[in-house]
Amino acid sequence: QPVQDMPAQELQRFVAEFFCARDVRGVLQSKGIYASKAEKLKPEVVELSTSALNMQFFDKLQQAGLVSHNGHIKGRIEEDFEGIPLVNKIREAAFDEGSELYDTFSESDRLEFLYRIFIHLNVGGASNQYEDHVERYLEVTKGLIRDMLSVRTADSGE
After folding, report:
1. What whole-number distance in Å separates Cα of residue 135 and Cα of residue 20?
2. Euclidean distance between CA atoms 42 and 33, whole angstroms
3. Residue 115's pLDDT is what?
4. DSSP codes, 30-53
5. pTM for the full predicted model
6. How many CA atoms lie less than 13 Å away from 17 in the CB half-sphere?
7. Taking the mean position of all CA atoms in its chain, how far away is CA 131?
8. Is the pLDDT at 126 greater than 70, yes or no?
9. What pLDDT does 141 receive?
10. Residue among 111, 113, 91 nearest 102 (CA)
């Protein structure tokens, strides 16, 4: 049965079993992602929207002052948020609910596939080499979206 056709509970169980599988945990550990025990893994299925497909979605980065006019990502004093170093204004807007920048992206924006890809790229991982300019993140986000999504016509013609 295709994943997109699974009932929500069945999909949640599938994802939980997938990430708790010994082979999958081994691959994750080889990439530096550790969970001491399978029981501690609590993956969650969240349905994302794909309505934002235009990179203008990120114009608000400059409008809100997270990025300068030349694309330089504005820094901040580093603070740890649940293991994520908040070293720039983009991360602050993404994760710090107490920040005045948090409202840069609405709750519906945060459920956009485009947003999630961009934020994952910006946060990276333990061996990530961060970019100081937003353009590289936007280019890679756009490329990944093109590779992962395809547009098709519904029976209604839309």
Report:
1. 36
2. 14
3. 96
4. HTT---SSGGG--------B----
5. 0.78
6. 6
7. 16
8. no
9. 93
10. 91
Q: What is the rounded CA–CA span in Å between residue 17 and residue 132?
A: 38
Are 25 and 32 in contact, with CB atoms under 8 Å apart?
no
The Cβ-side half-sphere exposure at 121, using a 13 Å CA radius, reads 21
**CA-based nearest residue to 115, from 66, 70, 72, 51:** 51
Tokens (6 digits) for 86 = 């908040």
pLDDT tens digits for range 90-124:
999 999 999 999 999 999 999 999 999 999 999 88
CA distance 120 to 83: 14
Query: What are the tokens at 32?
Result: 């530096």
Question: Which amino acid does the sequence have at 99?
Answer: S
Distance in angstroms (rounded) separating the CA atoms of residues 113 and 48: 6
Say how many C-beta atoms besides its own lie within 10 A of residue 58's C-beta.
22
Q: What distance, in Å, lies between the first and last C-alpha atoms of the chain?
A: 26
Quickly count: other Cβ atoms within 10 Å of residue 138's Cβ: 18
